[in-house]
Write a structure and sequence with these properties.
mainly beta, five-stranded mixed β-sheet, five-stranded antiparallel β-sheet
């Protein structure tokens, strides 16, 4: 775990339950990381752009569950990919069947 936020759930069998919870630290403009499992490689990259953050994730299709968890101050800009389902708070996204995912995030103004 770190700024890329790839976490294998403690209840996972063969790394089949993954949480990706990137930490968009003010001191960093770019993070790229991966985690090799028996099910395949989980990849996460994010970079700051002028208007927000571009997030790229790649997950194997043979996972039981893969969840993207965003900090509450960030929202996905535009429409969700059809393979993404989210909770009502736009913070937890089921990306189990997303495969390759690229989204743009904007920071919410409070």
């Amino acid at each position: 775990q770190g700024p890329g936020g790839i976490i294998v759930d403690e209840d996972a069998r063969g790394s089949d339950i993954i949480k990706i919870q990137p930490a968009f630290l003010d001191s960093l403009n770019f993070v790229e990381c991966s985690h090799k499992t028996v099910r395949g490689t989980i990849y996460c990259k994010w970079q700051r752009l002028t208007q927000g953050v571009e997030l790229v994730i790649k997950v194997p299709f043979n996972l039981k569950k893969c969840t993207l968890v965003l900090p509450e101050e960030y929202n996905v800009a535009g429409e969700l990919m059809s393979s993404m389902r989210c909770d009502g708070l736009n913070q937890f996204y089921d990306i189990t069947n997303a495969g390759d995912l690229r989204v743009f995030l904007t920071k919410t103004i409070h």
